[in-house]
Design a protein that fits this description.
By secondary structure, the protein is an alpha/beta fold. It contains nine helices and 24 strands. Helix 1 crosses helix 8. The longest helix has 19 residues. The structure holds flavin-adenine dinucleotide. Flavin-adenine dinucleotide (FAD) binds next to helix 1, strand 2, helix 5 and helix 8. Its cofactor is FAD.
Amino acid sequence: MTKLLLIGGGHAHLSILRSLLHEEISDLQVTLITSSKFQYYSGMFSGFTEGLYDEDEIRIDLESLCTRASVSFIEDTIISFDPMQKVLLGFSGGIYSFDVVSFDIGSGVASDLTQNVGLNIKPNYRFTEQIKEFRSSESPVIIGGGSAGVELAFSTSAWRKKQSLKNPVTLISSSPLLHSYGNKATEKIREIAKYHNLVYYENEQIEKLKNSIIITDKDTEIKYSAIMPVTGPKASSLFQQALLSTDANGYLLVDDTLQNADYPYVFGAGDCVSLAGYPNLPKNGVYAVRQGPFLWKNIKRLITGRPLVPFKPPKKFVSILSTGEKHGLFTYGDLVIYGKWAWSLKNRIDRKFMNKHL
Ligand SMILES: Cc1cc2nc3c(=O)[nH]c(=O)nc-3n(C[C@H](O)[C@H](O)[C@H](O)COP(=O)(O)OP(=O)(O)OC[C@H]3O[C@@H](n4cnc5c(N)ncnc54)[C@H](O)[C@@H]3O)c2cc1C
């Protein structure tokens, strides 16, 4: 019997669990080990923040899904890994051995602020508790002008407007807003920000904090009562500690078959890996989802001794950002369109995704 361990209940592993609802593989024992019984879906974080969805609508019950897929479920956080001995150690003290292992553990937040004053929405199962504290705080400040920071700024503003909370939300970005989406998206999001009374600072960074005041590198002073850093992803220390090959930022290095070159029985997908052939691939759920079917196919091929197939990431992908009050910004390459229909489309796609796990 081959023992397969799936570490982390991220998007690619969800896809494997969905496949196992209908597939029966002889001589394979599959176990999911993940930090929480629930997987929270970040596509619906903005809607939860704004009060459009309940907690149960934005999370997947992994334990129940595993039971239905004939997969053993263990709630634990992996803290150490020996790829040579093929064992993992959990925070609970549990020791887990395997023949084949796959990691889909996501990423953390790249900010020192999460260690002290800042709130931290990662891992994802902390999101609801953290955002509830943040959105009702007197002077909430978001750090990070990428898609996640922008979505949370708009949805927090929309929620506060409904609660008649007067103080605006402030967003501080070290680059132009939505910089990686191109100029058209940046200009459009600035326009929407003005309409929603969002206070934002671009090309500024926090220099220091003093008596509930943020002082930026341009000497701007911003009052804060809660800080939420959403400053891009940070790798888990697990892979470097295990002396596995990683990229310069500590992400597990995998080739296009999603295997680590040193240990072909170690697979990985989603935010926690770096693809050797595509080092600049953005970390987002879209790629994690797309990798899922390749990951599953290749794990089965390795076990049965067949050649593995390469994953080729698409060059462009559709993105829809919620901008509050059921409006959205749709982007695909250079195409940027804003409107109510974009949010409705996003809502339909997100709900359809969640319904696949019921
Ligand atoms: C506010 C916000 C909005 C976003 N919106 C979008 C969007 O609309 N579209 C999009 O494509 N991307 C979006 N993203 C990015 C997206 O959330 C991530 O890129 C995506 O979740 C990565 O998926 P993943 O499968 O790699 O890991 P995750 O979804 O992060 O899942 C990781 C899993 O591993 C578990 N885990 C973590 N560490 C361990 C451990 N040591 N041991 C065991 N289990 C562990 C966690 O509990 C979790 O179940 C958003 C991010 C944020 C913050």
